[in-house]
């Protein structure tokens, strides 16, 4: 890992190691990928301001969110089917998250079961749930989380409708995959990946069962068709609130209105996310949506934001706009693909080091000393950041 200095370095290594169809599955977004790109462009358009002659020798990035202590204000966003990157999949990421003092959010579409990741990273796992058509399936998932001592459920809010991802359609990526000849050839040219896949964990959904065993790839489509639920509403959050004593975080919140609804229906946290541009294209970047959410939440719930975080400075920008923590998906999936757990460990190290460096330039020693002033490219102070500073004083 000595020549990996950035998330981009991990991405380049992952690109070499993965068949094109797998790399594109991780990297790609919906339709024209406008939102995918915008997440990055908007982060780049927010600039931080340097302070000088401040003693920052004792910097640390420790914080806490929803009762969980974090060594850095960054959690792992939920990601399904990570088995395609590396057979150690979620278990490797959960272990790396625990080592880094972070939290791993386990996806319902994961290749590994909730039990496996909790075993690998006790106290460091939050469980994502979806409201399935089969309410008993949802209930079983919640009960398992409770038995495992998980204290935070992250509700998938933005998955009622399946998205269209052109890259995946071109590669024939699906459940099961139907790749064209060029992808079969391209995959054969990645023997390391093929071997890991043949010898390692099979590509099942480890979290749900059919006849007592994990769901196989060819069964996934039919399972999803039976369980995909477009009728879930805020009432389901209220019902969940009445039966779950731990934290509830709603993921996919992009507006002040939905933030208020989340709190009214009992959520303890909102997760500002556009699914990394993978679901609904043509919507705002998350960093653009964040100030409105922070304003509407007004300190009544925790705010987490993901989408395009690739540098420690991106975490600082999220916190400067009032988020309690940032989250990231692809950096960890790409780290996993690049080198298994060592790649994920490296992703955490890089982001942690970069955050501490940027804090030195910002003149802060603790993450709760952010918000710091943000400016746009003309040097104008961004009002949302100014409001966040005033609110924190
Ligand atoms: C391969 C992959 C699988 C994903 N699976 C899920 C999922 O199961 N549930 C979910 O809420 N979001 C899922 N997401 C979205 C992430 O949770 C997160 O919102 C997004 O990756 C953040 O953007 P970033 O990748 O730029 O950090 C997935 C993202 C990727 C890249």
From TrEMBL:
EC number assigned by the record: 1.1.2.3, 1.1.99.31
GO molecular function: (S)-mandelate dehydrogenase activity; L-lactate dehydrogenase (cytochrome) activity
Cofactor(s) recorded in Swiss-Prot or TrEMBL: FMN
UniProt keyword list: Flavoprotein, FMN, Oxidoreductase
Uppermost EC category: oxidoreductase
Keyword Ligase: no
Record-given protein name: L-lactate dehydrogenase (Cytochrome)/(S)-mandelate dehydrogenase
